[in-house]
Amino acid sequence: MNRVTSLFGIRYPIIQGGMVWCSGWRLASAVSNAGGLGLLGAGSMHPDTLREHIRKCREATHHAFGVNIPLMYPQIEEIMQIVADEGVKIVFTSAGSPKKWTGWLHDRGIIVAHVVSSSHFAGKAEEAGVDAVVAEGFEAGGHNGREETTTLCLVPAVRAVTALPLIAAGGIATGEAMLAVHALGAEGVQVGTRFALTAESSASNAFKDYCLHLEEGDTRLLLKKVSPVRLVRNGFRDAVEAAEATGANEEELRVLLGRGRAKLGIFEGDIEQGELEIGQVSALLCGKGIQSVSAVMQELVEEYGRARERFSVCGDNW
């Protein structure tokens, strides 16, 4: 037990990322049933859809689960009210300032963790009263920080400015990586890419298979003028890179992005013209195949245990 497992009431300090078009009730409940903390990804759900997924998740697991809410969500008031009305006890906020909503959520008995990309924002999150922070490095897929700080640099920087329970994210897909961030001061991990490519993820199998054959350098952080996101090589990314190379402004990039581009790629499986978001660590999973959540969780826990044992045996001779 540590502060993260105690805070959320879970067996292992492993949190599943609340990823758009991947994190439905099947994925969240499977992670929670396997001993971690599953999160529903509200960022790609209409309010009524989120309510449905909360109810289905509660039917599928008796363990703790939560909701990830991007604070830039256009119907944020309605989403927050649904979470409160449905009795959700854990919320992870991201993509915005937690100052407005943390007190509101606390008043309704909800635990709040906030995702940050810098030590500066970690300090701001602590001032806002959050219960835990997630330090997400540059390696992550999805929405990312413009600072481009890697996880191994970000985690100790955040640990230095806050005493809150600290969760590391970005580039974590193995037990060895869990041990590495633990050594840097993290008390838990948030895993996105590895869970996005499981059988229970709501992403299309075409997206999963494509991402499981990526190699080093096949993802790149782009769209910084809009909202930084790590994109997989395909026709759409080629168009984004060409536009940015010629100095496209924010409005021009928004027109290129259009509406529903992430859904087209991740959920509907248009590998060429969709917006494909995945973390750098996907290259380590090349050829691994689509696994179940339970298999992934077992691997993470066993790898972490073996890594700890190796270092305890090696002592100073590593």
Total separate domains: 2
What low-confidence regions span 5 or more consecutive residues with pLDDT below 50? none
State the major sheet. Answer: 8 strands, parallel
Total DSSP helices: 14
Mind telling me which CATH architecture of the largest domain this is? Alpha-Beta Barrel
Global mean pLDDT: 94
CATH topology of the largest domain: TIM Barrel
User: What's the end-to-end separation, in Å?
Assistant: 27 Å
The total of beta strands comes to: 10
Strand order of the largest sheet: 1-8-7-6-5-4-3-2
By CATH, the superfamily of the largest domain comes out as: Aldolase class I
Q: Name the helicity range.
A: 40-55%
Proportion of residues in β-strands: 5-15%
Structural class: alpha/beta
Protein name: 2-nitropropane dioxygenase NPD
Keywords: Dioxygenase, Flavoprotein, FMN, Oxidoreductase
GO molecular function: dioxygenase activity; nitronate monooxygenase activity
Pfam family, one: NMO
